[in-house]
Amino acid sequence: QRNISLLTFDPDGDHVQCRYGSNSNECYTCTPPSVLSLSSNLTAFSPTSSSNEGSYAVQLMMEDFPRQTINLTHYSSGTTSISSSSSMTRIPIQFVFKVDPAAPSCTAGEYLPRFLPPTPEHGAQFFIDVNEMIEINITAEATQSDQRITELLFSGPFNMTKSSSGSGYFTLTWTPSFSQYDDNETHPICFTVQANSVYQSDLRCVIVRV
């Protein structure tokens, strides 16, 4: 089984959960992929037969819940009470999940790349100022003789850059500008590494506060 950790984060400290879309306003063909199981912030893929190879559309909703009952006041509609079991907002999360042919071994670090120190853990937070540069060093390995870490795939701020000092050694560099500052604004950065055989590592995401 492989686990895919979703970045569920709210800067206000609200409790964030994910669920599958359940109606026509949230999803198109709302049947969840049979190869996945979902908890509040974790998607798990269980080994399947070769007949399950292919691409699957994953349509999720991410919701935030207050830690305790709160009152929200709107100038036109008055005050509304929201309990800890009622979501305040929700946003759609949609992506394609591809099931490749089976790897010779599912042990992380052999064919499937695994992260090594000093790679930050999933959910790590960094604090920087405007015009201050941050470097995120990422190291990974795949030990089988025919495997080589060839690519770092990432998402983050538009002006983030990637460099490599050799197979399995990468650095993400970013210097936030004034236009990317908004009083303790948070920026998510997610990454995975890929071997020459297209096998990928786990997904990790971190938060940078400016």
Automatic annotation (TrEMBL):
<protein>
    <submittedName>
        <fullName>Uncharacterized protein</fullName>
    </submittedName>
</protein>
